[in-house]
Amino acid sequence: MLESSVVLNRQVALVTGGGQGIGRALCLALAKAGADVAVADILLEPAQQVAAEIEALGRRASAIQTDVSQADSVREMIAACVDKLGGLNILVNNAGIFR
Question: How many angstroms separate the CA atoms of 66 and 55, rounded?
Answer without folding.
Answer: 20
